[in-house]
Request: fold
Amino acid sequence: MRRRLIRIVTRFAIAIAIILAFGGLFKLYTDAQLSAEQQNEVLIKAIPFVAVFVSIIVAFACVIVIVAIWLGGRVPVRTYRPIEAIIIAGILLGVLGLFQGWKLFAYEYGFLLLLASVVAFMIWSHFEPLPLRASKALPPLSRRAHLMGLAAALVAWIAITALLIPASKPTEPYGFGQTLWDFKTDEEKAQIRDDAEEEFRMAKVPVLALVSLLPAGLVYLAVRELVPDGAKTSPAAHSQAVPPERLGASPG
Reply:
């Protein structure tokens, strides 16, 4: 599998390099050969941008192919479906943030959450989980696996909130243009500052803490499956130990 992945990454990297080189060479050619008026034409200016855009799409396709090969048929249903549900929850929260009309910060974060969730769903939906019969034949997760998963999720939640909350703390000019802010009186500045800090404490912090639960949930589901357990076998090994008729295959 490793050699196959290396070949795939190499081919995608070559394709991306060719596309970017074409866009760069075209830009150099137009700068050297065309007049300023011709360089400002929409088509001429669009080609380098399109080259970058297409290279991003090709890179995303590479990620989808790698994940599909790496995880396809290996993730148990008990983990695959909850992760899918968390991603869908992120999409719904993102849509809610975009279409609510009360808080601007919810709109901003809603867009980012929706974008990340849609990208994650596109990747996750491109491969199948472990077959249902094989998933049901797996031994149940141990208490140790659940505890390790919860501990890792708690660490991830604390780390994510510790990154997001300080970065979202309001600072001058609190959404106003600097020129407009300079024209405001000290009393108006103090009122705006108090309102921004109150919104940060009462709205932003709870929302960011809630949203951080989504990636923390993903960490929990992943870690509980990866925790080694002496009484637990891998899906492939367990499938070999299960009689063929239980897996839906004909014996012999």
Q: What stands out?
A: Residues 190 and 243 are 73 Å apart (CA to CA). DSSP finds eleven helices and no strands in the chain. The radius of gyration is 25 Å. Residues 140-232 form one domain.
